[in-house]
Amino acid sequence: MVEVSILQKGAVIGFTTTIPVEVIFAGGYTPCDLNNIFVTDSNPMQYIEKAERDGFPKSMCNWIKGIYGVVMKHPVDAVITVMQGDCSNTQALTEILRYKGIRTIPFSFPFDRDRQVLQREIEKLKKALSVKDEQLKAVEEGMSKARSALGVIDRMTWEKRLVSGYDNHLWLVRASDMLGDYNRYNSMARDFIEEVKSNKPKEGVRIGCMGVPPIIPDLHDFIESVGGHVVYNETQRQFILPFKVMNLTDRYLKYTYPYGIFSRLEDIQKEIDRREIQGIIHYVQAFCYRTVEDVILRETLGIPMITIEGDLPKPLDSRTKLRIEAFIELLSNAGDAA
Ligand code: SF4
């Protein structure tokens, strides 16, 4: 067990994917999703370049290199690394971070979704951060208000179509750390809801985006520019934990992302029907083991789907643009003919 209770209150605790962030807040620390720092930076390539200068291979997922680069350039006080339920590269990343003197705290989601095992992992995290149940309860109540505002933004995207696919992506993906302050994020989200109420509803083909959040910055805007509207960002929506459960363990048991493709499929099917999605864009990351899941999605979803691959945090290349445009045109013509 890594004891980090010697960290000062307010210390920044980074993490490599969504974890029970309530525990970090309850300990009086500031959570920081390292993925978001990487991909929202005005120059994300600097982090990849740093990783490659330090010996990371070209043939490795750039999210991992980006996370490493962020930790090297903006030192955090500790990093929670998710050893199971996220990425096959995390163990190697943890080793190199430890080697570089970064304090790491392992956390695992059990592959078989075993409640007792998850509860034990959460208890270990609470102990490592010296968190008491009373502190946790207050945080959970505060965060549920922010999550409910984010649920409204999501609903306004697919039901009233007042929110762009990119704004939906951004609000939901940042739910993993709520920019380090859930009260402030809640009030920012409520202001945004007021702002978009007067928007003109969007039109166009209803698209669902599946897979890991894209490293490509202009994906959603490009889809919109060629007649599509992303009404479902699968993984980003999971980050808001859109479940009516107040128990911490049960909430993270319902969260689908860490438990493999079969746990995700049921949720995806339900959302395809509810949001009347006409076509799926499955985003995969170069060198990611999750790419294999494409086979299962393709054979089970039962609606048109294309797969696009991203590598660097750079705008879409012209070939991928052409493929997306042709896909949306096809769906649009099919809709007209129906
Ligand atoms: S995209 Fe895949 S390989 Fe890259 S960090 Fe995420 S899970 Fe790991």
Strand content: 5-15%
Proportion of helical residues: 40-55%
Order of helices and strands: EHEHHHEHEHHHHEHEHHHEHEH
Number of strands: 8
What does the oligomeric state look like here? single chain
Mind summarizing the main beta sheet?
4 strands, parallel
The radius of gyration over CA amounts to 20 Å
Summing up helix and strand content along with how strands pair, one would put the structural category as: alpha/beta
CATH domain topology of the domain at 12-130: Rossmann fold
CATH architecture of the domain at 12-130: 3-Layer(aba) Sandwich
**What is the helix tally?**
15
Task: Report the top-level CATH class of the domain at 12-130.
Answer: Alpha Beta
Mean pLDDT equals 95
Q: Which small-molecule ligands are present, each listed once?
A: iron/sulfur cluster
Instruction: List segments where confidence is low: pLDDT < 50 over at least 5 consecutive residues.
Output: none
Distance between the termini: 60 Å
List keywords for this structure.
338 residues; Rossmann fold; binds iron/sulfur cluster; 8 strands; four-stranded parallel beta sheet
What does this structure look like?
50% of the residues lie in helices and 14% in strands. The longest helix has 26 residues. The mean pLDDT is 95. The chain has a domain of 119 residues: Rossmann fold (3-Layer(aba) Sandwich). It has 15 helices and 8 strands. It has a 4-stranded parallel sheet. A 4-stranded parallel sheet has the order 6-5-7-8. With 338 residues, the protein is α/β, with parallel strands linked by helices. The protein is globular. Bound molecules: iron/sulfur cluster. The site of iron/sulfur cluster has 10 residues, from helix 4.
